[in-house]
Amino acid sequence: MNMQQFEKFLEEKKSILKTKSDAEKLRSFIMWCKQKNIEEIILRLSSEGKGGWSNNYFLDFTTTRLIVTKKSLSRKFLDVGYVAGLAPFPAVVLSEKLRKKLDGSKQVITSPDEILDADSSNYFIWYSDVQEFVFRKGMESTVVNMFGRMVVSNYIKIKTANQTYEYKLPVNKNGSYEQILPWLSVVLPVKISTS
Fold this sequence. Notes:
single chain, alpha+beta, PH-domain like, 4-stranded antiparallel β-sheet, 4-stranded mixed β-sheet
């Protein structure tokens, strides 16, 4: 999505953005993108493997699929995420304050295709292929980081006809279970099991 398309959305939906809840605003943005055949990143979560050194991924939830991107070595340490997990355009949809800052901004927004093309190890999962999506709250009480705090993580498991994918989501990089679940519920067109 480019800036002109986004400004067109803001103009068309001006009345909705003033009166609806955050979830309704975001759903409106997703539906508008789908109607215009625009794939847009909505939510980014950060996943890491045990010990934090391997299997570190960004999980980019778009309007149509989940894109999984392997983090570079530098990104493992400097993991700068999106505001509250939301990509720039969706964050602006929810915030009048951010909307004013966006005017005249030359901010570069990465497209889903650019993310996939950046590295051959990146992959995606179509929402239409998902048979089961489980988002589970968890805590590893035996693991303590160098500051002496418990490492708290949430977990995502996705089953398709051919494969099962599992991701560990550290709370310090993504927010709490209660903060993530509402956004996942808005973005995903599949039922989320919370067992």
